[in-house]
Structures are given as C-alpha cells and as structure tokens.
Hints:
This protein has 558 residues and is α+β, with helices and mostly antiparallel strands. Helices cover 50% and strands 21% of the residues. The strands form 5 sheets. Strands 1, 4, 5, 6, 7 and 8 form a 6-stranded antiparallel β-sheet that branches. Strand 18 (523-528) and strand 19 (531-539) form a beta hairpin. Helix 9 runs antiparallel to helix 10.
Amino acid sequence: MVEDKLMRKKVRQRWLVDYPRAVPLAIFALVAAVTALSVFAIESGQRIREEADLNRKAQAMAFAIERRGYSNSAFLRAAGALFGSQEQVNAETFRQFVAELRLDSDYRGAEGIGWAPAIGAGEIAATEAILNEGKLYSVRITPSAISEPREQLVPVMFLQPDTLRNRRAIGFDMYSEPVRRKALDEATRTGRPTATGRVTLMQEGGEERPGFLIYMPVFEGGISNRSLKGFVYSPFNAEQFLTSAAELVSIEETPIRLFDVGDEGRFLIAEREGWVADRPFVEREVDLAGREMRVVVQAVRDNTLSPLSMITLLFGLAVASLLLIVARLLTQQAQEDSKSLEWFAEQNSIRNSLTRELNHRVKNTLANVLSIVSLTRRRADDLDEFAEGIDQRIRALSATHDLLTQSEWGTTPIRSVIEVELAPYANDQDHELVIEGPEVELAPNDALSLGLALHELATNAAKYGALSTSGGKVAIVWTLISENLARIDWSESGGPRVTEPTKRGFGTDLIEKIVAHELRHPVELDFLPTGVRCKLLVPVREPSEFALRSPPVQLEKE
C-alpha cells in the first residue's frame, strides 16, 4: 500500500515536472470552464424567469388596454342609450350626463366625451350651418373632401370637459377624414363601439401626436325603422392612454409600444420612454373596440450579465487565477525537487564511483607496497638495510601520492612526476639535470608506477651512477610516439664506469616487473659503460595540441 501511494505521488509529481506550463494552464482552463458553465446556467435560469415575467407583463398589459377600452366603450354605450331616448340632444342634457360620469376619476386616458350629430344629404343641401341653442357653428370640412360628393356630415357639436384644447375640435366634420369615416361607417353597420386607426386629433392643433377615437352610434326609432341620429365618441391621446393602462398593472418603468394594425400595415401610435434596440420583447394582440392593435413589452434589463452571474464570474476567475499561481508554484517546487533528486543521485553515483576507484587505488598501492616489502626483504642483508630501503621507497611512493592529491587524482603532467622524484638532486651544483619533453598528462596509476621507476633510477644513480660523482649528468627526455603513448628516455653520463651487475637488485626487478606490468609495456634497462640507459613506454591522456604537432624526438641508443 505504501509503495502504491508513493508510486502515485511520483506519477503526479512527474506530470508537474514534465508539463510545468501545461498543468497550471489546464487547471485554470478547467476552473474557468466550470465558472463559465455556472454563469451559463445562472443566465439561462435568469433568462427563463425574465421571459416568463415578460410574458406575464405583456399579457397583463394587453388585458389592461382591453380593460380601458371596454370601460370607455361601456360609458359610450350608456350615453348612446340615453341620447337615443331623447328627442334632441341639447347642451344641458349632455353636460349633465358627462358630470355624472366623473371623467377625472373614472374615465382615465381619454380626452373626454363628445357628441356629433349625423346630418344627411337633404339637410346639407338645405343649410350650410347647424343652429343649436342660439349659437352658430361653422362646419369645417377637410380639403380632400371639398370636391367629393357630400352624402353626410358628422360635425363635432359638444365635447366635454370644456377646455381650450377640446374647443379646437368643435365644428370639425369627422366624416370628411377617411380614417374617421371608415370607423364611423363600421360603427353604423355593427351598432357597436368602434375604434379608428392611427389619427391626429384636432385637439393637438397641428402637432403630430398620434391618437385614436372610439365611436358609438346613436339611433332613434324602432328596430325596423331606426335612423342614425349621431355619434357619441371619445378621443384618445395614444401616449396618455398607454400610460393609464400601464398604471393598472404597475409596470410604469417597463418600455412598451402600441401599434395600430390595419390593411396598410402596422403603425406605431404610442411608445413609453426607455425603449432600447436589441433588447428582448414580447408581442400580444389587443382587441380595442373592434380594432386590432399590438402591444409590445420590452425587457427592462439588456443582455448584460446579472449581478449573480457577475459575482460568480469574478469569483470563478479569482479562484482560477489563484489556483494557477498555486499550480505554478507547485510545478516550480516539483522541478526543484526533481533537480535536487537528480543531483543527489548524481552525487551518490559519483560517491560510489569514487569509492570503487579509491578501493582500486588502495589495492594497487597496497600491492605495490607488498611488492616493495617483499623485494626489499629478499635483497636486504640486515634489518637496517631493510628499513632504510623500505623507508626510501615508501617516501617516493608518498611523494607521488601527494602530487596526485594536489591534482585531485586527475591527470598529472610527466614533468611534475619527474621533478618531484628528482627534487633532492635539483639544487646540487655538482650534477646536471636535463628535463625535456612536451606537455602530456598521465593517469593516476601510471603516474604512481612512473614515480617508483624514477625513484629507483635516481637512487641507483645517486649510489653508483652519474649522481654519485661531481660532473655527472642525467637527462630525462620524453616524446610522443603516438596519440596515446609516450616514450621516456633516462640517460646517465659523466659518472663512474658502469659494469653489468652480476646479481639482480631490487630496483631492476621493480622496474622490469612491477613498473612494466603496471604500465602495460616492456621496459628496456641497459647498463652501458658510459652510464645507465632506461626506456619506458607510458600511456598518456589528453596530449596538448603543441605536443601533437611537435615531431617526436628520437634518441639513438649508444
């Protein structure tokens, strides 16, 4: 179980390390997507509620308009019944009736209520004016109707309340205007209240303010022989009528439009403030006193996000940004941890390699020491000679070790090994040392073996050879014979005459056996009368560019 958990944790961290940018962005995108879905769900629910509310308002507004129309039609029906029973509609009777209607409180949205008698063709020919209560009202006819045959006049005789605005309409022949005439004929035919299409009321005084009228025909006589007596009617300013209807449903702030629908198309006759293009709206058909109209109710709020959606969006983006930052920090931490683990693994590998290398070198060193001890013991005549030999050779080995330690057991120049081993004789004025050769490097084990060989050669020269007498000379010259191999020539001259030893000494065995074995190449050791000559082949590493270009120096064997 523990291993499985560690494995899963490692896999998660691996994702953070392999995709340091993709993982934070993926987390941000995921949270942003969830936020967007939440906002979409909220907006969808809000839109459904708004559509339902808009439909409710539109339906309520349609009912309110029809209610206003029915209420006004009811007043006109009552007036028609009253005026039809009267022999003559005079000013007193009309004012008394209108006073009982209480127009200010119950007749909202209308300009008032009026009476217009119907004057037939015979009466038109007989007189050009209508006499009523001692006052003469000239009949105003529209210019378009002057050239037309006059079959009937429907002039405005009374219009209450008696205001300066309503007095402008007195005497106007409503039958002379086509839209009004069409509604008057339809009302006469049906005997019911009938609304006109879009017109401009005479009360407006020439201003283009749309309105409409509702006519109720008044007949006299029986059903079989009834005759048209006139019309009781109400003029309406369309905007005021729409406002009064909106007050019934308490949607005063909702944008609303009212359209008249006729054979010529539909025309806007009223619009409340606040209408904005590109907002959702709902249409409803309205029957206003037999006239088809359309009421359009628009949503109060536009397509912007609701407050809840804005809060959700801002909160979601804030959370997504925070998680992005946290994920980015985690990926950086995971990368740092991964680098740390890689560094520790590398250090552990280096430590293991160093341990193996140290173990190998210690074994080699101990083998060299054991060989030195064994050879020294076999050729020593007494304990002092044994101790002295052991001491000198161990010191030579130690000097080379110190040199390798300084180079951190890396490659060591041949020149440095030679100078360390011949350091005791370098300042002696009685001898001459010549050290020449290119800059080439030796491996640590090869440097140790070379140091042992040089120590034995120098010791032999100091006892019996060129370094034992004044004027002696020792030349150590090395050259590259290939890219990976150098030849070192030890040459003595100016010393005592050399004779071939009859007994092999420790130095000879050390050079020809141990050193040759470690250097993996044979060693040539010659005891010439003029001096000892020794040739060693040593593997090299990283030869310098100059050394590779320099031609190898060949020393002739004497």
